[in-house]
Amino acid sequence: MIYKESETVELKKSTSELKEAIISIVSILNKHKAGKIYFGIKDNGSVLGQDVTSNTIRSVTKTISENIEPKIYPIVSKIEIESKACIVVEFEGTDVPYFAYGRAYMRVGDEDRQLSQKAIKELILKQEEGNNRWEEKESDISFEDIDEETLKKFIEKGKKKGRISFEYTNVKDILRKLNLLTKEEKIKNAGYVLFAKAPKLQLRVAIFATKEKTTFLDMQDYTGNIFNLIDNGEQYISKNIRWSANFNTGKFEREDIPEVPIRAIREILCNSFCHRLWSEPYDNNIAIYKDRIEICNPGHFTMEATPEDYIYGDEPSRPRNPLIAQIIYLSGEIEKWGSGIKNVYKKCSEKNLKVKFEDRKTAFFVVIYRKNLSELEEDTKEDLTLKLKEECR
Q: How many angstroms separate the CA atoms of 381 and 316, rounded?
């Protein structure tokens, strides 16, 4: 058997690394609630072995018990690997968050990352919710409160994308098929925010005169369901950014090009509703500054990974609201497997635009930095030059 580290397995060359092993135990428990630690094996899988006595076993058990809160009761055993004595620690626990030496950690790949206070708070909320997520709870609206036109459009979009196979029949039947009804046939909160005629859901938008949040040029509040607000947000940004003309289209008419990719904007808006924390009494918002556009949603980035893990890696999707995310996916607005950040980053990079994903104290922000006028003019000149070269051939 080849031993290697993973999200649930940690290798230590000896019990001299017991403190680091305890941190790994907590890290694994907070993410997977069970795992194993091996002593006597290097992190590359090479088996070294170590001295193992009954005192060694007792010492490891006692040290783990004394330095992890809430307490766990691991199984610590001596095993033979490649004819060498090693120790395996098997542990499990569901009372997250766990703390090692007063600090909480989370397993990411084979690394242990210390959690911030806000991440610990989110972990507690996640644990308290369990299977009883906000989106799954019963709302107080009736079937008459559902915007049937939005529901019909959703079904048509999903069919065109090949993600929905059934025809529209009636509100109750469709909500049932979409898993938006409870066992008692009541509309879930997810159905409320996705399809209600007049939900208490807002998108706050504003334009600022400078790079600072000081002088307002415009401020508005949009009210509606998630699909309405995605449209409102896209339209507001489209109307309040610069556009340049591209004549190098091979057609007689010019093509108007936005300074930021609109498809990326829409993807950010969709994800901001998939991942927002509905227990927070704040609104999603958009702020347009002289040098940047900021799109914000209440809630923080997943504790298990960083934006860079999604941009450069293949992390699986971990939506905070999987039911809402599933419905938006069926509409064709997003992809399912955590590709949103990567797509946004790629679309902005293709336009030579800097984009940042920032988990601030109050919320999660996506920031797209705008080009200045001289850069936009230069882009237009390049388009004209290309057009002239084509005509001369």
A: 42
Positive or negative, the Cα torsion across 246, 248, 250, 251?
A: positive
> How is 348-391 classified by DSSP, letter by letter?
HHHTT--EEEEE-SSEEEEEEEPPPHHHHHHHHHHHHHHHHHHH
Answer CATH for 130-240+260-370 from 3.40.1260.10, 3.30.565.60, 3.30.390.50, 3.40.718.10 = 3.30.565.60
- Which distant-in-sequence residues (6+ apart) come within 8 Å of 206 by Cβ? 216, 218, 219, 220, 285, 286, 287, 288
Pairing of strands 84-92, 363-369: unpaired
pLDDT digits (tens, 9 = 90+) for 227-263: 999 999 999 999 999 987 766 655 556 678 899 999 9
CATH topology of domain 9-115: 3.30.950
pLDDT 10s digits, 13-43:
999 999 999 999 999 999 899 999 999 999 9
> Quick count: other Cβ atoms within 10 Å of Cβ 286?
25
- Bond preceding residue 322 cis, omega within 30 of 0: no
What is the Cβ-side half-sphere exposure of residue 65, based on CA atoms within 13 angstroms? 10
